[in-house]
Design goal:
Layout lengths: L1 H7 L3 H9 L7 E2 L5 E2 L2 H11 L3
Antiparallel strand pairs: 1-2
């Protein structure tokens, strides 16, 4: 998640806001409580944001 925030130049709180509103990339929560985003889910999400 930190890498995504850095790549998008957003605050962690923004990422969590997007996640709560289901506006961000698809996430999974691991048993230890950390949140992960698969690279292909992140790429697919970015492609939905592209403007033609």
């Amino acid at each position: 998640m930190e890498q995504i925030c850095a790549a998008l130049e957003i605050a962690r709180s923004t990422f969590y806001d997007w996640r709560a509103r289901r506006k961000g990339p698809r996430c999974m929560k691991l048993p230890n409580g950390t949140i992960r985003v698969r690279r292909n889910d992140f790429t697919a999400w970015l492609e939905t944001l592209e403007v033609l």
